[in-house]
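A reminder before we start the practical. When you read a complex entry, don't treat the lines as separate problems. The point of joint prediction is that each chain is placed relative to the others, so the output describes one connected object in space. Small molecules and nucleic acid strands, if listed, are placed in the same frame. In the example below there are three entries. Take a minute to note the order of the lines before looking further.
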Amino acid sequence: MRIAHAAWRKASFAAAIALVAALALVAAACGSSSPSPAGSSSGGGAPIKIGFFAPESGFAAADGASAHDSAQLAVKDINAAGGVNGRQLQLVNYDDASDPKQAVTIATRLVTQDKVTAVVSGSYSDQTLAAAPIFQRASIPVLAAYAVNPGIPATGDYIFQQDFNGIVEGRAGAVALITNLGAKKVAVIAIKNDFGTSLVEGFTQEAKALGATIVATDYSQFGEKDFAPILSRDKSKGATGFYMAQYYSEGQQFINSWNTLGFKYPLVGTEGIDSTTQFFEPVGAKADGLVFTTPFNRDSTEPAVQNYIKAYTAAYGHAPDMVGATTYDSFLVLAQAMKTKGTSPSQIRDGIAATTNFVGVTGTIQKYINGQVVKAVDLQIIKGGVPRQYATLDDPQLITP
Amino acid sequence: MVLSSLINGIVLGSLYALIALGPTLIYGILRILDIANVAGLTLGAYTGLKVFEATHSLLAALVVAMLASAAFGYLLQRFLYRPILGRGPLIPLIAGIGVFIAMEEVFRLVFGPYPLDFPATVPLPTVHVGGAVVTGVQLLILIVGIAVLVGTWYSLRRTRLGLLWRATSQDTETASAMGVNTGLVIATIFLIGYALAAISGVLLGINYNTVYPTMGDIPAYKMLAIIVLGGLGNPLGTILAAMLIGLVETFVVAYLGFVLPRDAIAFIVLIVILLVRPQGLLPGESFGS
Amino acid sequence: MSYMIVVGVTVVIYAILTVSLNIIVGYVGQPNLAQGAFLGIGAYFAAVFSTRYHMSFWLTIPLAFATAGVAGLVLGAISLRLREDFLAITTIGLNFVIVAVFQYVPFFGGAVGIYAIPLPSIAGHQFSNNAFLTVGLLMLAFVMAVSKYLEHTWFGASLMAIRDDETAASSVGVPVASYKVIAFTLSAAFAGMAGSLYAPFLSAVTPTSFGFIESVIVLAMLIFGGLGTIRGAVLGAVILGALPEAFRFISNYRLLMFGAILLLMLRFQPEGLVGEGSVLVKLTRRATEELRRRRHKGTTDSPAAGV
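Here is the predicted structure of the whole assembly.
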């Protein structure tokens, strides 16, 4: 009886393994079904589906919310203005929870089930990198709103980066700190990820070219709270100017440490701190004098910028940040591309690639080179706790990736 | 620089000690690694912030935050942990992580994804010691830290509750057989452990002027490293380990820069020390004896 | 269809991780919260060698297996000095140390990670999602078969003896130390093998994808399904692995659901869904017993019938 039972169980397990193996064979036999040409010019009135994903839950939920809210606003505004060639845009939105595996399933779903015509990534580099090849293979154009990993545009000709290349922004930071603010011996404190490392690469090149000495380069982690030790250390090495490539949370702690130490040196930051609710308001006048590089000039007289700020603030009850602004811009670029070249994925791709001197909410896009945006870098200075226009860097040598 | 690093290290160590003390007491009595305790920390921070915004009283904020977290802790032990005791250490650990994940999402859904400021000013002066600066908030952390640590030491050594905690932590079954109401002792320890978490949460919020849904992530990992390093369930060991980690982190950054992520530093210290002393810095279940 | 297959590949990768984790946690009873790190080691070595040295996918499989295995061996050796909870936290710490290594060592691509990992090919054809699923299922079948084989060998019985009582096991001649180390090595090596599939499937690897949370999820899946059983390991991976996709319609509450389901399961069914002693398993056992008794009764009642 026991033996019989054991034998039965053994047999059933063998069957289970055989089943798994059989599933494998079935999967293999199914073969790859050729992906249907997604969104191929259906009738005039049908909405145009735009795929979107962002980290709306998990640790990056704040950026996910900014991106997602701006995406919704952009689609609403474009539709209110008559849509594209009489057709409305339809947002197909997914939360990737900051998980690259989910980005892969989302990308597949957007391509094969939702059959979207174009995609905006409102997510970080990890997720955008994992999703990009799927869109490239399906020939669906993608605009990465603010992910800066160099591997994203390198994926192929359908993948575009809406935000500055990190090298370009780093160079601009060096010009700001050395040329504009006159620092000669500088220390770099950057976040240890693709954003921080590519900024540092550009900064270091340009700073050396401008004749400055870099006395120290240090990388901190997400969630770093205490910058006083590293700042003291840099001071003891003779640093008289500082480059802070941090995000807003870490930037806020950086400014706390900076003030505790009573530092008055020239200080340059990046778009990573460009958030009203998460940096300018909590930090207030403590960061006065800080200059930072950003594509988002709130003092711009362009109606697009002021309309976006007004509409966003009215809809969500707080001021927009840079992450939201580039997301919003991505949709404007898509709409523009559709209007000029047509609404099929390949036409949209061509339309994005042919963009010239397009005025968006994050400055004027001169063109895209190898999928990377070319636009002037704005320098903003914090005065009385508010970011103000300081200078614009538009030297073609500097801003061409 | 040595002096200011020393002060920064001690302040950081005091924060770590406050965070890790509750889970240490709980480990001592139940032998579970209570990651959910850090959800109590974030709950305390949010509660404290909301009360502070309404009353502008730091004291009221602290008291209500402690009550809220303590109630949360009581419910957890009553309805989650006690029914699954005796299932080995992994089940309560993963259940606690489930609570931790779920609560982070609750905070995001209730209070929004964006960090909130905690604009409390501490009624303490900024003190200059030699070339070093101690801010009012740092002073508050030191004072609260010392008060809590002395209070805990006193409670464990001199009160009936402390005697019961030690008896239960050494041998639950015998203590129970000798008439100790272990249920009551466990409940009390959770009330205290979660009230301590609330204090840590409010202090973290004020010190860094920010409260956000995932503010418990880093304290959670750090707390685990510290209570293990301290010998698991040994409050004195935990305090020593917290100070050690706080000082090592600060001095490494001050003299070598950000050579490694702080979390990696804490765990490398832990692994190296455990390889030499597998029982941690101090053996468990003894408090100053 | 394609979407379901992609979800399937994710689930299968998780299942390889849970079944392999079961060897060390389920059979030997050693806590291990570092399975995500071993996945990462396998994925990273596969990524580096396929992008930088143009190694074929098929060669990266044994490479990922071996490198993660070596890391498992080191953890196994460390584990010999530490008792339960000390070991649990040490394995948690390992995640942070490994992520730091990925971030700081240029060989692993630093903070940018490694991208543009080529699609594997077979007989000149690039992998489709179906091919990923096929290879994944074959890997899973292999890991399941090895696990099942272990259950019936002296080695496997010894591992369970170590779990039940280490001193007793060693007194009847089980070489506790070396068996533990072998089990850690094997468990990690299988996770590394899953990494060799993960890397080309995602096309990019970044340091933070292999942190503590990934390891927690894998262990949670195993405990959810039923610690100590292969069926539990697979079922846990299938259910919790598909959960984020199944709950897309309540996008904003998915992670909350994950946490809530996990803690409710552990609170009311700590044996897991189909672990030994779980309600489901008891019910099925009772039902099959009942069936067998009835059939048995039927044959004894009418002995002369038929032939």
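Discuss with your neighbour: Chain A touches chain C through 51 residues (CB under 8 Å). What might explain this?
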